């Protein structure tokens, strides 16, 4: 599965030389119908409803209020085009929405911003969140339904906090913050995996362990690739001074920026832990191997001189020819002497090994 | 072949102290005749034709239109010189066109820009694309025929999109974008090679596998060397404010710059995967070796005491001299006792090894 | 224990999409009652007392003096909120106080600064110190009672030095300096551990040694994570020009900044030493293993030809059939000859090994 | 020789506390007499001659022309001092000329520039080139005769190109370019060595191969040390705006700067190739070792059970005592049975090993 | 000794929360009495004398001249305090003088500069040199007597060069230069050690060699820690524009800055050499080990089949029962046949090994 995901991530490009701004549905966009939701709110009220594609051209931003257009699914390029036409989004920006995956980034266009971030779910899978911010309008495009925005919708519905009165830039901040914060639970789970592996590596290091460590490392790398440019994007958003983002929202964006740094910190920590796990695995395996080899070699070494002694007394020199030929064989206690010689040799070697601390 | 390519890439220099701006045909330029094509277009029409070298001095940029001079092949330095003379390109710039390979870069001259990029084809081979941009003129020099510009030519011929009305800088962008995008399919193929190798490394790691991993790494390195400075070049082009590039084109160049970053991202990802493949190969091989050594050593260790016992009862101590000399040999069940002793020893060792989890 | 700590460090996040500025007690905040102390002083006097939570709303900054509000423990969010309300601290700042752990940092708000540092105790455990600086006010929030501020309290009580007359920014400096300096004794202890391990690695390298080295490395990494951003924070404080920090205090802050650099220097030195300890451990272990294998292999190698000779003279070729069959067995000194042959072989091999410096 | 060279490079310092600007002949300057050549030219003519040391004080820069003073050899400090006195070079600059080796650099003095570069010859040996540029004057100091400037002298003599009319800064550029370009042939030769080693590593990896790889790496490192600061120096020269370098020369200097980058690129490529050669060597050697150990261990393992069987039937249990004692010895086909048992055992093991793919 | 030094370097801190500017004698300051020397000079004369501590308060800077106050030893904090009081040095600056070790640095105070550098002696030991520069005054504090300043004192005494007329900033430069240059001889000695080790590693690699390599690496690291921040300090001094350093001195400081870079270059070169020595050592040791194992394994492998043959003919199958039982034993040349079989086997194996290039 890990492999499939990584392949998906990379099979991506529009044929070289294609007309820029051409909108092509992504190969993996699937066939699920696109869902369009809108939230139209001002400080006093909040209207939420499902939109039919045909209604897009006549969509209006509420007077003195904010419109949040939430498109879930990218299978129908006509909808993306219709939204772009209605609100004057740049064709290249729309291309980036469809042309998945894009690196997280902030792109400034004449009268709107495009913010691209990646949501991370567990087991590690990322989803591109494209968000347009323009005057009193936020338009979000998700790859598929399912997102971390439900608490924000609740706050809009119930008028919790000041979200209804703080404008489109504050809504954008809230969405960005939700996307960034959605990484924490996944990281926590990976952290637990790392800790479990830490114990496995010491107690039972098998090749499978190594493969699991590598799988965790890959997932951390994928999060890293999602969060690293996201940090730059948030920092750029912070320094954005085109007027689309009001000074009052900046302090919130700084908080969100801090969160991206915290995510990165955690990712780096886990990556270091995982990297040291590989070393620990290798040292644990080689330790085991050494232990085996040592014990077996020592055993072999003890028996070698014993077998030699047995071999000597198995020789067939003829005692009848001369008394010098193997007189031991004709001693009264010859056999016992030989056994004793063997025992003494073995004992001596054992002492020597023990003295050398090889046992 | 990989070796040949890398050699070609490096055998390159004009003798130290040569008059700067001297135009020397590259040693590997080959003898193929140079092809010259021109596109002369304005919003309403597009003329495309093959040019004879003799026509260069009388070449004109169409009034209110754009001229694209496309030179394919570098074997004839006279043509390069003629183009340079006709349009006032700097001698050092022309030297860079011929003096292959140059790093991708953007060089500003008084009234023209020189952009050098590298096209990448599969199996990884790079080709220098030198592009001059000056007022309503784009001149491109390729090492040899064959390029990713066909879709652009089609758009020019058929008047697709706004390419005919957007000026020379937009044409330049389109060419740059085509060159950068031409890397994606090659990367995809390398990505597949990496994945195939990933499986081979686990299932059947032979030295040849390692050599293939290294070949992939070399190819990725070569792409990296082509794309890394290309990114800087695109970024410089973005910040270019001499008026040759109009503000409207900038947003397209930023998109092209984003593509170079995406290529780099993918290259780095594959490089990391390939690097970890080497580690995985080494650990896979040493794993195998360990397994062999372990089983064999254990086997040897079991037989060593057995052979010792057989050796003992092969000794020739004379029972007739004294009853203490090898009485076992004269027991009724002596042989069975010896066989049982051997079986017990072997069984005991097997149990011990199994308890220690060495088996 | 090391594991527990690291787990604590990472289990941290407010659910994605939570209303920003929501104050939630940290899961590990414990149930100990919060202690609130205040120091209210001007150059002439210093009042110190314990505050009841109910008194917070009516708390006053002394005219021409400084108020230090010292909150120990974070279990009661109401107190944090009351302090925030009384002095106008930003909700996001208060969230950072409770939302542990935060990276050390300096956050500017409209009329106050938030400085977050980490105290380090031995065995390595870090505690977040959140400090607010505003006009003639310092408010500190600690995770739990116990801090390195006692000498500062003494100087305030006894009016030692100029601390009473140098304003809130000087008090803030003193607190920061105390937090940074609190790391030195811990580092010293880790340094001693490293030195002990250095000897163990050479004299008696067991897997446990490796685990201890890794434990030290982890602790050093944790200090590094505490001090690295602290250095940036102090440097930002140095460059702070909002008027909250007076020029006269700057020279002291620079000194404190120097201390953070010294801590980092020491941490990096110890980290390098610990890293080289791992290498030394591995080389020490492999050295031992090599020594064992070498001696044992040599021993085996010497006995192999001896056993072969014994085997030869244990063959049963029938001398009666022909005088060519094993005549040695019927020599007068055959046995002695065989023993001599064995001794000569063994001696020759020993000489050869000695000449090759394998012994 | 490599070692000698590196020693030369490092044995260098003036005793601490020496009067700054003291001119001391370098210990390795040798005793060869110093050669002084001058080129005195303007657009119309070029005078070239050998200068006697005594003529230095009366040397003149030609009106409207350029003087190139070319000193080859540093054994006579009096000459260096005389040149310095005549043209007002700073004592510290002169000290740098003599005090070899200096890092490549550009030093600005009140009315002159000092440019230091390193020429590289094959086998890798570097030579310091110190060049002074001041108004219509270039003075070069070489460690010893022999340089890559001959083509420039030819162009001066024959008036090729515009060198005679483009001033002292253009001459300086030409000299710098010649020094930088002199590195390419050496790099090419090192590249060939790397390729030869690449094949040796696979076909016949002996310790000598490793030593040769290291020698190449050292030489590449030495070039790197020469070219890395040279790039900075050229970049500084490019940004030089004191008027000594005219805008028209800048485009040429940029070309020279590009060449330093190309050299660095090639050096880094070769260094990477050499580094991967070391890995390849190690893996090639360990591969061989593994192959040997495996085959030998397998062979030993096959014979061990066979010897055991032979040992069993060499036991002396007395058949006469009981029919249970080694009845096989008295079977009609006992011997054949034993031989068959051995063959079957060996065959079984071989099959097993082959099935496990150990053979 | 190396260990002791490193311990000294790290046991250092004032208890957290201590009154800033508190002067505490360093624990290792020793009990040697402090020596105070002064040089009071102007262009025409130079007075040198030993100062009693009691004279400090009445010390005067000579009109139109320069005073160099040279304090050797730090055991008496009263003297440091008296000097600080007399010349108005900042308490924090004085603290840095006593609080050893400080990182090399430049600290600006209202009317004086504090420059801290580290002298390096062989065997590598560093000593903190604290230098104050203020209007016509240089005050130096050394940890103990013994310094590289003697040549400067000589130049002052004898009026060599322009040192007497160039002011306090030039004196400061001279002192800095002497401290930096004092590192060269030590580096040269370490360079010789590295070269000696290079030969030992190939000819006779024992664990002791590795320990010596590590000792050299530690010493190089210590020099690096002394010189790296010193370079920053010198660069800061160069950019110092408070008027204390006159433009004329700047060119000398640049020279000194160049020297720090040269030292760093040499240190990095030696560090690289030492690092590659470790690799070379490991490969040399493993090479030896491989050689031993190979030869011994081959020897064992040759004897194994020989012993097997001997074992076969040591079996006791009864020829009298059947002619199939070991007929060889009763052949006329049976024994010779067996010996020949053994010789042929051994020879065949040797040929095979030789063909495989294992011998």
Count of DSSP E strands of chain A?
7
Query: Averaging pLDDT over every residue of chain A, what do you get?
Result: 88
Helix percentage range of chain A: 40-55%
Quote the distance from N terminus to C terminus of chain A: 46 Å
Q: Indicate the radius of gyration of chain A in whole angstroms.
A: 36 Å
Instruction: Give me the oligomer status.
Output: homopentamer
Helix vs. strand class of chain A: alpha+beta
Could you tell me the strand content of chain A as a percent range? 5-15%
Number of helices of chain A: 9
- Spatial order of the strands forming the largest sheet of chain A: 2-1-3-7-6-5-4
Give the CA-based shape of chain A.
rod-shaped
Largest sheet of chain A: 7 strands, mixed
Low-confidence sequence ranges of chain A: 1-12
Report the largest inter-chain contact: A-C, 64 and 62 residues
In a few lines, what is going on in this structure?
Chain A has helices spanning 2-10, 77-87, 91-98, 150-158, 167-181, 183-203, 207-239, 247-312, 334-355; strands spanning 35-42, 45-50, 66-72, 105-108, 113-121, 125-134, 137-142. With 359 residues, chain A is an alpha+beta fold.
Please, could you describe this protein's structure?
- Five copies of one chain form a homopentamer.
- The first copy, chain A, is built from nine helices and seven strands; from the N terminus they run αβββααββββαααααα.
- Chain A is of the alpha+beta class.
- The first copy, chain A, has a seven-stranded mixed β-sheet, sandwiched between helices.
- In chain A, strand 1 and strand 2 (45-50) form a beta hairpin.
- In chain A, helix 8 runs antiparallel to helix 9 (334-355).
- Residues 1-12 of chain A have low confidence and may be disordered.
- Chains B and D meet through helix 1, helix 3, helix 7, helix 8 and helix 9 of B and helix 4, helix 5, helix 6 and helix 8 of D.
């Amino acid at each position: 599965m890990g492999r499939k995901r990584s392949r998906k991530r990379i099979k991506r490009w529009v044929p070289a030389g294609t007309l820029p701004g051409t909108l092509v549905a992504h190969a993996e966009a699937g066939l699920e119908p696109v869902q369009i939701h809108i939230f139209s709110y001002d400080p006093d009220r909040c209207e939420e409803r499902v939109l039919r594609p045909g209604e897009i051209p006549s969509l209006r931003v509420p007077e003195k209020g904010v419109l949040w257009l939430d498109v879930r699914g990218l299978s129908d390029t006509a909808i993306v085009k219709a939204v772009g036409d209605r609100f004057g989004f740049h064709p290249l920006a729309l291309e980036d929405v469809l042309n998945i995956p894009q690196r997280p980034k902030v792109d400034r266009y004449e009268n709107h911003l495009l913010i691209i971030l990646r949501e991370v779910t567990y087991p590690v899978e990322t989803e591109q969140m494209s968000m347009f911010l323009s005057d009193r309008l936020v338009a979000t495009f998700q790859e598929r339904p399912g997102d971390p925005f439900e608490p924000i919708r609740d706050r809009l519905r119930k008028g919790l906090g000041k979200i209804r009165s703080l404008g489109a830039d504050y809504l954008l901040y809230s969405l960005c913050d939700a996307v960034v914060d959605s990484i924490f639970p996944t990281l926590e789970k990976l952290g637990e995996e790392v800790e479990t592996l830490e114990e496995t590596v010491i107690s039972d290091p098998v090749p499978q362990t190594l493969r699991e460590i590598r799988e965790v490392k890959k997932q951390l790398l994928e999060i890293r690739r999602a969060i690293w440019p996201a940090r730059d994007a948030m920092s750029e958003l912070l320094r954005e001074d085109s007027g689309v983002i009001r000074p009052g929202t900046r302090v919130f964006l700084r908080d969100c920026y801090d969160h991206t740094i915290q995510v990165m910190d955690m990712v780096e920590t886990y990556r270091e832990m995982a990297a040291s796990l590989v070393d620990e695995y290798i040292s644990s395996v080689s330790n085991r191997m050494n232990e085996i080899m040592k014990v077996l070699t020592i055993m072999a070494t003890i028996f070698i001189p014993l077998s030699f002694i047995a071999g000597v007394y198995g020789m067939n020199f003829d005692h009848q020819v001369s008394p010098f030929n193997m007189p031991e064989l004709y001693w009264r206690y010859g056999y016992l002497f030989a056994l004793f010689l063997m025992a003494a040799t073995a004992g001596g070697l054992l002492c020597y090994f023990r003295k050398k601390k090889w046992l």
